[in-house]
Design brief:
heterodimer; A: 253 residues; two-stranded parallel ribbon; 14 helices; 46% helix; B: 226 residues; alpha/beta; six-stranded parallel beta sheet; four-stranded mixed beta sheet; globular
């Protein structure tokens, strides 16, 4: 049998009226016994929306049977791997497959609450999305998600199935660190290190940066704006008139 | 390529490496036993179950009424029909639902195997029986066998459930035991726990009543089956 949880009733309608029912589910969602739902359904609802149980919890075991008045003629279940066995193969990440998609880690995450779901550009967002996406998709293009976290651990504390999300984020960061960084990234890090070790140069760079920010405000989002890619979707904070270094010197004097 | 064999092979080879226990939480130990502590207590007797069900139904915005006899049930249904100006209603061939619906003298559609869903969609209310009422959660347990198939309990704007006192059940584990006992040989193709009228939390995470399913859910508990 498959189990569908919802509040609206659209899933019940969709599985009642059309002639063919096709259900798609991840392979990690198989549970041993139907009666286990007596635990899982309230856990899901409580963690997701704070309801004791969502409005419709429906279990479907096949097409319409002889003697039943309605229901589809055909019933198909598609079990989807799509990278899940890759997660399963990593002994340190396997645990993330216990996720029941309640979204509690999203709602409590300070990063998610500030940037919202669309910023992740992934199917699964928030801490759990940041844990699984780099492995379900690919580490190179999605590794940034593991770094978009303060590792505060609020997600781990709230997770009803005990996934240690911040440990998984940390684990993913180590995997990234063990890989060879790209040439450009390494060069930029070297340039930063060079400037950071020379206070005069560092302050000069800061001044240039503040000047550039002020100058480009008038072209904001336009073709001449060097920060176009950023400002296209959001604001850059305005450059302060003086640096911390300047203020320190002033107040000491 | 056989996808099933390929996936099973991948699972087998993935599980060859043991889980890294340093990163696995210790929550796998007593989670199921511990969880029951977080749900409201139920019981100890039938009156307490009825009271708890009524409280939960009220907080879910379902309407819950006790009726003493079949005549009383018909009387209350007739009031409901007049109040809401029911033009056509739907029911199924159940020993409680069909006679009660027929007694209303409102044009009646009794769902059957050759129906068109459009006919049901025109009805103002759907009257069905159920398998159980769950006191702990305020849910109604319906199946394709007990409640006239799949669409009757979800397609009309007002779902009316007729239950008997013996159908009061304390919690979900007992409901699953009941299902296993009742349908041991032939499990219906659809089982559903209905917990209040249809709602949605998708818009700014605020629950709003009335989405794709019935906007109203009325429950009648028949005290005596005579």
């Amino acid at each position: 049998m498959i189990s569908i949880t919802e509040n609206e009733g659209n899933a019940r309608l969709t599985t009642s009226i059309p002639r063919i029912h096709i259900a798609v589910m991840g392979i990690e969602k198989v549970i041993p016994r139907l009666a286990d739902l007596a635990l899982l359904l309230p856990v899901l609802a409580t963690s997701a929306t704070g309801q004791t149980l969502t409005c419709y919890n429906t279990m479907i075991g096949g097409p319409r049977q002889p003697g039943e008045v309605d229901g589809p003629d055909e019933f198909h279940v598609i079990l989807l791997d799509n990278g899940r066995t890759r997660l399963l193969a990593d002994p340190g990440l396997r645990d993330a497959l216990r996720c029941i998609r309640c979204g509690a880690c999203l709602n409590i995450c300070p990063v998610y609450r500030n940037i919202g779901g669309h910023a992740y550009d992934t199917t699964y967002q928030g801490p759990i999305g940041a844990v699984i996406t780099p492995h379900l998709q690919d580490l190179t293009n999605w590794k940034h998600l593991a770094f978009a976290s303060s590792l505060c651990g609020a997600c781990t504390e709230t997770c009803p199935v005990g996934i240690r999300l911040h440990d998984h984020l940390h684990h993913t960061r180590s995997m990234v660190a063990e890989r060879k960084t790209s040439g450009l990234e390494a060069m930029m890090a070297r340039m930063y290190a060079f400037a950071a070790l020379r206070p005069g140069l560092f302050q000069w760079c800061g001044r240039q940066m503040r000047r550039t920010l002020r100058m480009t405000t008038r072209f904001r989002g336009g073709r001449l704006d060097p920060f176009r890619a950023w400002r296209h979707t959001r604001d850059l904070p305005a450059a302060p008139a003086k640096s911390f270094h300047d203020l320190w010197k002033e107040r000491k004097a | 390529v056989n996808g099933r064999a390929a996936i099973l092979a991948r699972i087998q080879s993935a599980l060859a490496r043991p889980t890294d226990v340093s990163i696995r939480g210790d929550s796998s130990t007593t989670a199921d036993r511990a969880f029951s502590r977080f749900l409201p207590r139920v019981g100890p007797d039938a009156d307490a179950l009825a009271r708890q069900f009524a409280e939960n139904a009220a907080s879910l915005h379902a309407e819950f009424h006790h009726v003493d006899s079949r005549d009383h049930l018909v009387e209350r249904l007739r009031e409901l029909a007049t109040e809401n100006d029911w033009r056509t209603i739907a029911t199924h061939d159940g020993p409680l639902a069909k006679p009660a619906s027929e007694a209303l003298r409102v044009p009646l559609h009794c769902v059957g195997p050759d129906d068109d869903a459009a006919t049901l969609a025109q009805c103002d209310a759907g009257i069905s029986e159920c398998d159980a009422l769950i006191a702990q959660t305020g849910s109604v347990l319906v199946t394709a066998a007990s409640a006239g198939g799949r669409a009757l309990s979800v397609l009309t704007p007002h779902h009316v459930v007729l239950a008997t006192r013996s159908q009061l059940t304390p919690d979900l584990p007992t409901a699953f035991e009941l299902l296993a006992r009742k349908y041991a040989d032939a499990c219906p193709s659809m089982i559903s726990f209905i917990t209040g009228p249809s709602r949605t939390g998708d818009i700014e995470r605020t629950l709003v009543l009335g989405a794709h399913g019935p906007r109203r859910l009325t429950l009648f508990l028949l005290e005596s089956e005579e």
